[in-house]
Amino acid sequence: MTPDGATALACSNIAFVKYWGNLDPALRLPFNDSVSMNLSAATTTTAVELDHDLQRDTVEVDGRLLTGAALERAVAQLDLIRARAGLDARARVVSRNTFPMGTGIASSASGFAALTLAAARACGLRLDEAQLSAIARRGSGSAARSVPGGFVDWHAAATDEASYARSLAAPAHWDLTDVVAVVSREHKAVGSSGGHAAALTSPHFAARLSLLPGRLAVAREAIAGRDLARLGPMIEEEALCLHAVALTSRPPLIYWTGATVSLLSQVARWRSDGLPVFFTLDAGPNVHLICEGRHAPAVESLARGLPYVESVLVNEPGGHARIVPPVARHPSSGDGEPERGA
Ligand code: DP6
Fold first, then answer.
1. Cα–Cα distance list, 273 to 181, 266, 270 (Å)
2. Single pTM value for the model
3. Residue 185 — very low, low, confident or very high, per pLDDT cuts 50/70/90?
């Protein structure tokens, strides 16, 4: 029998109001809504090929076969999609990232969004964007936000089907730019899933939640109005607040390095010199420098000039997860047509 296959591409995303803590960890139902922007240069391309002759699923990421917990997590996601399609064929999965994993650029977001779309297509499922987003969420919460395009809003909800993300605005709406300053490529000791579980032990967790409705309103209004002067101070406050929760969790999670702290102070200096740039951070040491497109070349060159910055990745608002032509060594499968929501 000819194997069925499909290849999908998804962008990672950076959250302006973040997901940190699960109401239901098994279903990855978050405590709060979150708002993000997809990242055009931080993408994952994943090919899924179903093969009835395979004994077990194999998953290769950037040339390495996954084993242990990482493999189990990908297999669980494949199982979810196979169960929905009523299929039991095993899969050969090959995935490529354009950015380093485990460094605060969310590889799980683009990874599970691409895996979900490619596997759903390979299994012959025709799902709308909301359904794909809800399924991607089960693999990694932030992956729900990598299914729709541009600027994205993920709703916290009480049920599996109701917690999905949708686009607030298309990529062309605003030329907001995320200049990611990579200060460390080391794999972080505690991943996001551990961080979500630990978050509830912080005395500051409830305080942060109480502040989020106001921040979400600012994020939605500032995106609608392309207002960086409104968005910027809020995203810095929110990132520091998330790290205050992480730092005061049991066990404490210290994601920063000395270079992270130096760069945070540097951003304030650039701003007082007249450059409108703001920072945010995910669960890692790297700093996301948020500015408008016209200031991105200056921000990029200043970041590259810092001795502790290893590399820089410039992202415009990225598109939605989509089916793409197969990459080399995979038989023809994708149709090149983007998968759009219903
Ligand atoms: C700090 O989506 O990586 O980047 O659901 O366990 O895979 P899992 O967590 P993940 O958490 C992302 C945390 C964050 C904030 C955010 O992206 O909203």
1. 19, 11, 5
2. 0.94
3. confident
